[in-house]
C-alpha cells in the first residue's frame, strides 16, 4: 500500500450544516448549542481552517441543512478565493428537519425533474453562483433518474454549460448504480462520490472503472460516520463504535498513526481516489485527518479482517441515531 502520492483531502459539510446528524460523538464535539448562528460560526471557522491548511475542495448538498448558505456567505466574504476552490454540491434530497434535533424525518429523497428545477436555482442562490460539480444525491439502482429522459436531457444541458454532473451513491449496491450511470448512452455523468472505508469496500472495483474512464472519484465517509474515529468518552457513543475503533486502534498503533489517520490514509492511498472528504467539525480533527498516510503493506494486509458484509454495514448505518 503506502501510495506515494496520496489523494488530497476535501472538507465535507454534512456534519456542519444542520443541528443533528448520524456522526458519532457530536455531543462532545459540538456541545448543546446547535442554533443557526452557532452552527454558521462553526462552519465558517472550519472553512477558514481548511483554507489555511491548503484544502481546496468543499462538498455540500441541498439536504445538509443550511450548508450551502453557510458556504455561500463564507465565499461572499472571500470572493478572491473562489477561483482556487472546487465546490461540489448535490440535489435530490431536501432538508425537512426544521432545525430540530428531535425531528421525526430529517431529509426527503426525490430524483425527479421538478425536484431538480426547484433545487438548482436554490443552490445558485445559496452559493452565489454555480458549483463546479453537481451530483444526484444517493443514486441507487432503483432510482427513476437513469430512465427519466427529460431529466437526463436537462443534466446534459447543465454539463454542456461547464458544470461537471455526476452522482453520489449509497447502499449495498453502490457499484451497480455507478456502473449503470457510467454505461448510460450519452451519459451526462463524469463524477461520483461514494462511500468507501475499511468496513465497506465493495464499491472499489466500480470506482476503479470510473476512474479509468476519466471520472472524478470522491470518497465520503472514510471514517464510517465516526465508527473508525477516536474512541469517545464513556456514554458518548454506542458500544459498537467503540469496538470498531478498538479493533482499528491495534493496527493504527502498529502503523504509528491515529485511528482516524489510519482510516483516512487507507482511503487516500487508493489508486482510484481523486479526493477524500474529511467530515471534521473541529480544527484538531482536521489536523489529525491531514496527518494521515498510506498504511504500510504488512498492516494493510491485516486490515482486510475489518471488512463487513455490505448489507450488514448499510443496515447498521440505517439505524444510527441523529444526535
From TrEMBL:
Under Pfam families, the record lists: Aldo_ket_red (PF00248)
Record protein name field: Aldo/keto reductase
Domain NADP-dependent oxidoreductase positions: 38-292
Gene3D superfamilies, per database record: NADP-dependent oxidoreductase domain
- Per the record, the domain of life is Bacteria
Q: Which organism is it from?
A: Agromyces intestinalis
Amino acid at each position: 500500500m503506502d501510495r506515494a502520492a496520496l489523494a488530497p483531502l476535501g472538507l465535507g459539510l454534512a456534519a456542519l450544516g444542520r443541528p443533528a446528524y448520524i456522526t458519532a460523538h457530536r455531543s462532545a464535539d459540538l456541545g448543546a448549542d446547535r442554533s443557526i448562528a452557532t452552527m454558521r460560526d462553526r462552519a465558517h471557522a472550519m472553512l477558514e481552517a481548511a483554507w489555511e491548511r491548503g484544502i481546496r475542495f468543499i462538498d455540500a448538498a441541498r439536504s445538509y441543512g443550511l450548508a450551502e448558505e453557510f458556504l455561500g456567505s463564507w465565499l461572499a466574504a472571500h470572493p478572491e478565493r473562489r477561483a482556487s476552490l472546487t465546490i461540489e454540491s448535490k440535489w435530490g434530497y431536501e432538508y425537512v428537519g426544521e432545525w430540530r434535533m428531535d425531528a421525526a424525518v430529517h431529509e426527503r429523497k426525490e430524483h425527479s425533474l421538478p425536484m431538480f428545477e426547484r433545487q438548482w436555482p436554490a443552490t445558485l442562490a445559496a452559493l452565489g453562483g454555480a458549483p463546479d460539480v453537481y451530483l444526484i444525491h444517493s443514486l441507487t439502482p432503483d432510482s427513476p433518474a437513469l430512465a427519466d429522459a427529460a431529466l437526463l436531457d436537462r443534466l446534459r444541458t447543465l454539463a454542456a454549460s461547464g458544470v461537471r454532473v455526476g452522482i453520489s451513491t449509497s447502499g449495498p449496491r453502490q457499484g451497480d448504480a455507478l456502473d449503470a450511470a457510467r454505461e448510460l448512452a450519452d451519459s451526462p455523468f463524469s463524477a461520483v462520490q461514494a462511500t468507501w472505508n475499511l468496513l465497506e469496500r465493495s464499491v472499489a472495483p466500480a470506482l476503479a472503472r470510473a476512474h479509468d474512464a476519466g471520472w472524478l472519484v470522491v470518497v465520503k465517509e472514510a471514517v464510517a460516520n465516526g465508527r473508525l474515529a477516536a474512541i469517545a468518552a464513556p456514554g458518548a457513543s454506542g458500544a459498537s463504535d467503540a469496538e470498531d475503533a478498538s479493533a482499528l486502534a491495534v493496527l493504527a498503533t502498529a502503523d504509528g498513526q491515529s485511528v482516524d489517520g489510519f482510516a483516512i490514509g487507507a482511503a487516500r492511498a487508493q489508486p482510484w481516489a481523486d479526493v477524500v472528504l474529511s467530515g471534521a467539525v473541529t480544527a484538531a480533527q482536521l489536523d489529525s485527518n491531514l496527518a494521515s498516510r498510506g498504511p504500510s503493506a504488512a498492516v494493510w494486509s491485516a486490515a482486510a479482517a475489518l471488512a463487513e458484509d455490505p448489507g450488514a454495514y448499510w443496515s447498521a448505518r440505517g439505524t444510527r441515531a441523529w444526535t
